[in-house]
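S.,

Sequence below, as promised.
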Amino acid sequence: MIMKSMNRGTVRLSLKVATVTASLIGATAFAIVPASAAPAQTASAAATCYVHNNSSSALNVRSGAGPSYSVIGTIAPKGKLPCGSLGEREVTGGKYTACGGTSPYWMTVRINGVDGWVASACVSLGL
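The prediction came back faster than expected:
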């Protein structure tokens, strides 16, 4: 049992360790998930959320939610990457001018095993 104190009370999380075998590469991964969560899926299961690059040029993936963060990769024109740890949510970060407008909104994607950030105005969500 892990307890985390917050200003508004105490949150109690019951965690379990799930073992997932990636049959394509023969590796075993461990994940800590809430005990009430659905059973772990295998690596061959399809991702449920993808971020699609809607622009006609490569889209920078940054190390943080703002244009001042370093570029850690790109999404090809009309390409896609799995959603990051925020899923379908976006957050307010540094303002950017891209894809025909100025906006402070960013979304996470998974790239090379880590979360990266992309300008929300340039992407859409889908499968």
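The first strand starts at residue 2 and ends at 6.

Coffee later?
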